[in-house]
Amino acid sequence: MLRVVNLERLKKLYATFSIPQLLTEYKIGDNELIPISVDSDIALKDDEHFTPLWYYDDTEFDSRNADEWVKKDNNGVNLPVPAIVYLPTDSNKEFSKNYNWANANVIDYNSTLKMYSVVVSINDSTKVYSEIPRLQIHFKGEDPREFVKRIKYAILRREYCENIYKWSMYINNVLLDKRSKSISESLPHDAIKRILHLLLKNQKIKKMNTDKINILLRQSINIIWGFGLVKFQKIVEQINNIYQESCLSFRLELLKSISKDHHNTLKIPNFDFEQFIRKPAQSTLMDKQLFIKMREELNKRNLLELPEVYTSLCEANVEITLIKNIQLLLTDFKIYLTLDEFETAQLKNIFETFSLLKNSWIKEIAYKCYAVLVNIKTGWFDISTCKIKNYESSINKLRRLMTLITRMMEERLRLIVLNSTKAYTRLIEQPIIPMKSINDDFTWGNNLNKSPFEECAPPLFSITLSMNENGAFYSINPDKFEMVIVSLLKRMILESHEIPAIHPYVLANLTFLEKPYLTSIGLIEPEIADLQATIENSIRLAIIPIKAYCKEYNIHSHLYNINVESYVKKFFEGNPSLNRIKEEISMQIKMKLNLEKTFPENIIIGLFFINVESLKHLLIRKRIELADLIMKIHASLTTEKIEICCAEYNRMYLKLIEVPTTVEQVFEIREWINDLPNLISDQTEILKRLLKEMDMLDPFLWILEDEQLKLKYSSLIWPYKISLKVKESLENIAIYIEKFEKIQIEDELLLQENVEYLSDIILKLTIENNLSKVNEIAVEVNKNWKLIKDLQLTSQTLNQRQKLFGHTVTPFENVEHLIDEFEPYKILWQSASEFFKLQSAWMQNPLINIKKSTIEPMLNHLLNIVTKCVEQFAEVPGTLSVANEIKTQIEEYVPMVHLLNYILTQGMKQRHWDIFADITGIRIILSPTLTFKKCLALGINDHVEEIKQLSDNASKEYIIEIALNKMMDEWTGVKFQLLPYNDQDIYISTITDTEFQMLDDHILLTRQLSSSSFKGIFEEPLTKWEEDLRLSKDVINEWNEFQKTWLYLKPMFDNPDIKEQLPVENKKLSLVERIWKRIMKITLNKPWVMKTCPDKQLLDQLINGNIQLMKVQKALE
């Protein structure tokens, strides 16, 4: 956490600095920073630099190296690093004169050129600059002050080096005087000897002044010994060169100081800018004491002073060498494996191999070392020692011996791990060698049978190509291979670090604080990292073609997703023609053959053996199912049509053998037989066409079912079978005609007898006047009327049959006359019966079961019918008396019906009957069993006017009651619409204009009802309801005003400045707001308008709140 805080602080600190500003503070101009071209033929000028600034960059200023700045992600792609880069303003020129610092992203580093690549966004586009030196890049994660110091140091270093270079060039070419063109002086021999003597004996010579050096140069001392001739000559030559350059430098400085015009452009370099300290040459002589001392030191360090030590090393080396050919990862597979099988086999081998190393190998080496060294009881190599401090001493030879054996073991372990890794890499890499040139957009092509890659090595993995509704896929996700294969490599390398050292086994008496382990090769070491990268890249290359191969099968996903039944059903829903069906079957069979030809059973692609057999058979089977189902349904549909034809033939046959029951059927059959040849011909044509459709399946080798085959051949027999039956049917028809002609004559005679019988019935009705048997007479009349209607139908049928037989049509007029004569009697007696039934029902049924609206209409209808009957039977005395009697009874019952209507008036309550009892003394108790007969028995028919008056009053009171209840019902579901305000515990309430208008309408209607003289018992509810409505209207008006003002003031007082300026008003607003929250809380729990608003206390609160809000608003203004 502290590190994150520190980084954030540094980030903020670095952001406060500006690179251009810091450069200005360090007096660094653009002429110092602008890059120049590197040209060997460039002309040297005094006022211009001729070497690039980045030559003199000091990497000691770097807080990170290049690899730490430019990192890679998991896919090996460089991550962009934000930086400020010194780039040309004109991006089209290689060396522009105008440069500026710009924001960019560093994307790559060239370790060979030691240059960076950056990308810059310019006008919605990007441009990449390559070969940008480090001095032109300031990473935003580094200290800008150190970066500017780095630039300043490079500028000073360039100035120094360029001056040195120009000075040396000038010395080599300048003429010192008019006599000579160059310097050829050399030191005397004795001076050279003295210089060599001083160089060998004294390293402080460089501190001497010029005078002392001149004195020494004049001295000649013979101190030369121990040098060869060649080496001596080289040293002498170097001394002469230095002497000549020193002379030239001295004279040039003198000339420059004397002459003002000559040599004025030459700058004398600062020779003290950097001093290179040379190590003094050591004497090749060694005295005898030093030699003896070194020999003793060597004896102390020598391990092979005892034969047992040499033997232990040899024995250990033999055991160590035994594992040189061991394979930690399997590389030889006889069969193709799935990824799980491969992983299991490798893990098993890793476990078994490292178990062998951890147990047998380690213990065998430890045992042999122990067996050799156990006999040494004293000295350095006593393995029975129990003093850990002595053992851990740096001069302890036993410790060094154990370390040497450990190093030998570690070297062998590193070697087998590296060899196993290389073999593992070859196992993965070799099969994909032909794929090295492919890229991510590789496409397979149309040839699915043959791989475009040559098989360089046998494949390793077996995968199965399958398909689901989303498309083709492999049994194992190809992206999983890289993870598993690399994880096995890492597992093997990590296991190699778990092998214990031999120390605890040999030195049994010592106790180690931590169990020592052998050190193997690490995952991040270059060799392993390179091999792992090779494996990863190989696997990524290997899965590119198999993914492309899999994509080629996606065009068949439509076939896979086809539901055979749905497809065929939809196909036949379009009523395809015979040719269309034939084309569809041919297409399915052709596509099936194409799948057999284009799909391989299996294919080898690099690392993978791909099994396509199951998918191939699946798609082929679907094509076969489609073709078979189409043929099956076509055969079924054709069979159904043939069955219809056969059913039609069968219907013809059944009709031919049908025994007619009426003469109409006989003549119908005879007429139908005349048209039968045409019907048979039509069916035969249809059958031929259907058989042709059925035969269309023969080229596709479709085998019909037994029932279908049987139906096919039986359909061909029907026409012949029917033709034989026609002859027989014609002979039977003649017999049937003769039979039914006799029946016709008998029916005509029977009709005349029935007419005579009914005429006698009518004569009896003319003299019938017994009203006591009205119901029995009505039943008898209905029975005879039905008989008359039957005679009418029979007469019509007989007339039609007469036409069929060719007889003279005899009109049965007496039947029609009989109907006209009998119908008035039927109407009279039915009306009389109905009147008596209604009268009984109205008198005896409970009043609650009688419908008032049907009483008078029914009675008036009966009266009209009976009145008409009186007119019709004016000349029939007996029947006329009955009609007059019924009419008289109906007219006499009319007042009773009016009285019954008064009693059944809606709104007649028990209170009205109580009033009636007070007036007349007749007490009526409303109950479910009360009847009109009981009321008459109490004598209410003597008080018709009183009941009529009470009925009128009850009707008008009922209107008021209905109106009041309707208003209350309309307000039952009306609620306030509550909307939350700014996620606070406050709501804004609204009521629609329609509901507000309804409130006004109801107030007006209630006022009208209250002014009615019939309000009576409803006076108190009407008054209470009117008060509630008016109070609700006042509350809603105050509510809306309160809400409007509060919404206006609330945002203003949310401003802290307003609160400070108007503290009293802010306090008032807070108080009002608390009251408002309390009101809204109640409203939220009880949102119904007519349950919340009729509240005088609520009205008072809203009025007081509005007063306070007005005061706050005035103060604000």
Automatic annotation (TrEMBL):
Organism annotation: Aphis glycines
From the Swiss-Prot or TrEMBL record, what is one GO molecular function term? dynein light intermediate chain binding
Where are its TM segments located?
Answer: none
Q: Which Gene3D superfamilies match?
A: 1.10.287.2620, Dynein heavy chain, N-terminal domain 2
Q: Which Pfam families match?
A: DHC_N2
Protein name as catalogued = Dynein heavy chain linker domain-containing protein
- Gene Ontology biological process terms from the UniProt entry: microtubule-based movement
The Gene Ontology CC terms held by the record are: dynein complex
The cross-references to InterPro entries, in alphabetical order and at most eight, read: DHC, Dynein_2_N, Dynein_heavy_linker
The Dynein heavy chain linker domain covers which part of the protein? 816-1117
The cross-references to PANTHER family, in alphabetical order and at most eight, read:
DYNEIN HEAVY CHAIN 6, AXONEMAL-LIKE, DYNEIN HEAVY CHAIN 6, AXONEMAL-LIKE-RELATED
